[in-house]
């Protein structure tokens, strides 16, 4: 997989006026992103934001296909195809996208997620026409042949070895989705598996391309320094003639059932020096911003920075863990609220599980200091606003809103909603989806470790 977009940034330093009290997040008025949206007759969605602050332009193609759409028994296909899109086309050599961007001072990259695959470039604005032609070219004229297929499959398999097998805790994080979902295709890890990739054929790849890489399953986003009329003319010229297939795009309709009981599993590792534990709970789709945004704030209260609740409890006071984290992962379908700990020497998953639960219950039931809540909301808001200081960041925000969060209008409304989240909202969503629901717990043990008491039961890996 190519590098993830810089949507998930590190914690940032906040600047406040020296002679005034800190401004609460709820008091900030944010100018909305002024976007233009249209749909071509062939179904291609086009979103654009004109901004002449710098002579650059970001071009992104978001395809409405992710690992949840992988064929049965072929996990990793969406990820594999991300790589194939950088190979040759009818009118471009392999890796020519690098030449069209890097050689003029720009950059390009791509990423695959559960629901989407996106390709993104930023170049000086006088190269916009070239990039639009190139994106249309690899949508409509990609060479899906045996040499490209085999070479990129080998690259993806090596990536699996590095990120999952060689990483001491790679197997733990790769196991979260398979154990957290029972029937939804989110249970297939995005990176795939070597066995299923090896079982794939060239015809499988050709069929996948024809099924999902089509104009009515794509969103083009352009942000930055351009003339709107010229942009529309170029988009029409390069994308307008790409035919829309007669068959509908397949949609995932599987419904993940509510959990009926807690589940406990053990995964073993040949490389991990210390145990770890991860816990998950099902949460609503990202389009349910009324609940997802408070859940994201709850995750930040638990884990953002050294002053966070999990760090202070598990790392600082009890010294049970050396690393902790929490996340509210919003998806098009059911998402996950996750909390995890990588343990300190001499400690076991059961100890960390107890402390994780205690901190989550405390956050869900006890008063949250106003200063703590405001600090976290301001940190999250500042992170989003910093991202939007570049054309590329604005484009990412538009893509996330349009394809994941339920509609492009969320790019403006979700920041307003974040500032309005109250202590009662955090309590409500935690009690509904976490403390009042069933969990999946994964104990992660070094293979050579002596089993500790109460490490849990379930499938071993």
- Going across the biggest sheet, name each strand in turn: 1-2-6-3-5-4
- Quickly count the helices: 15
- Looking at the structure, the CATH topology of the largest domain is Cytochrome Bc1 Complex, Chain A, domain 1
Largest sheet: 6 strands, mixed
- CATH architecture level-2 label of the largest domain: 2-Layer Sandwich
Q: What Rg, in angstroms, do the CA atoms define?
A: 23 Å
Shape: globular
Which CATH top level class of the largest domain fits? Alpha Beta
**Beta-sheet strand percentage?**
15-25%
Tell me the span between the first and last alpha carbons. 24 Å
Structural class by secondary-structure content: alpha+beta
pLDDT < 50 stretches? 1-26, 454-461
Tell me about this structure.
The radius of gyration is 23 Å and the shape is globular. Residues 1-26 and 454-461 have low confidence and may be disordered. The strands form two sheets. A six-stranded mixed beta sheet has the order 1-2-6-3-5-4, sandwiched between helices. The protein has a five-stranded mixed beta sheet with strand order 7-11-8-10-9, sandwiched between helices. With 461 residues, the chain is of the alpha+beta class. The chain is 39% helix and 17% strand.
Provide keyphrases for this structure.
disordered N terminus, Cytochrome Bc1 Complex, Chain A, domain 1, 2 domains, 461 residues, 15 helices, six-stranded mixed β-sheet, alpha+beta, five-stranded mixed β-sheet, single chain
């Amino acid at each position: 997989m190519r590098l993830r977009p810089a949507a998930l940034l590190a914690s940032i330093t906040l600047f406040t006026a020296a002679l005034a009290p800190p401004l609460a997040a709820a008091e900030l008025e944010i100018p909305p992103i002024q976007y233009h949206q249209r749909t071509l007759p062939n179904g291609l969605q086009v979103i654009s934001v004109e901004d002449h602050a710098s002579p650059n332009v970001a071009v992104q193609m978001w395809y409405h296909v992710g690992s949840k759409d992988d064929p049965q028994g072929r996990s990793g296909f969406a990820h594999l195809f991300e790589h194939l899109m950088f190979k040759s086309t009818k009118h471009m050599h392999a890796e020519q996208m690098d030449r069209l961007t890097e050689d003029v001072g720009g950059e390009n990259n791509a990423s695959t997620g559960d629901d989407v695959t996106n390709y993104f470039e930023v170049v000086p604005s006088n190269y916009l026409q070239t990039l639009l032609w190139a994106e249309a070219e690899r949508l409509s004229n990609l060479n899906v042949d045996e040499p490209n297929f085999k070479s990129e499959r080998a690259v993806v398999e090596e990536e699996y070895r590095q990120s999952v097998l060689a990483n001491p805790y790679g197997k733990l994080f790769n196991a979260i989705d398979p154990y957290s979902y029972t029937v939804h295709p989110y249970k297939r890890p995005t990176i795939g598996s070597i066995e299923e990739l090896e079982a794939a054929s060239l015809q499988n790849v050709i069929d996948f391309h024809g099924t999902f890489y089509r104009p009515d399953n794509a969103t083009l986003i352009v942000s930055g320094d351009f003339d709107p009329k010229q942009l529309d003319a170029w988009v029409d010229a390069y994308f307008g003639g790409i035919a829309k297939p007669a068959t509908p795009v397949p949609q995932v309709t599987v419904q993940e059932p509510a959990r009926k009981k807690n589940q406990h599993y053990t995964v073993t590792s040949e490389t991990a020096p210390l145990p770890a534990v991860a816990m998950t709970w099902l949460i609503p789709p990202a389009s349910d911003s009324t609940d997802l945004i408070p859940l994201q704030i709850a995750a930040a209260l638990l884990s953002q920075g050294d002053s966070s609740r999990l760090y202070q409890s598990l790392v600082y006071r009890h010294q049970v863990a050396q690393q902790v984290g929490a996340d509210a992962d919003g998806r098009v379908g059911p998402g996950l609220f996750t909390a995890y700990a990588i343990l300190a020497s001499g400690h076991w998953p059961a100890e960390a599980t107890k402390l994780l639960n205690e901190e989550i219950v405390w956050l869900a039931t006890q008063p949250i200091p106003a200063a703590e809540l405001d600090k976290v909301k301001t940190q999250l808001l500042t992170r989003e606003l910093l991202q939007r200081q570049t054309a590329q960041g604005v484009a990412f925000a538009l893509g996330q809103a349009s394809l994941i969060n339920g509609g492009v209008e969320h790019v403006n409304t979700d920041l307003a909603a974040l500032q309005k989240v109250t202590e009662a909202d955090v309590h409500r969503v935690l009690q509904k989806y976490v403390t009042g629901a069933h969990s999946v717990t994964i104990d992660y043990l070094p293979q050579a470790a002596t089993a500790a008491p109460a490490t849990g039961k379930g499938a071993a890996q």
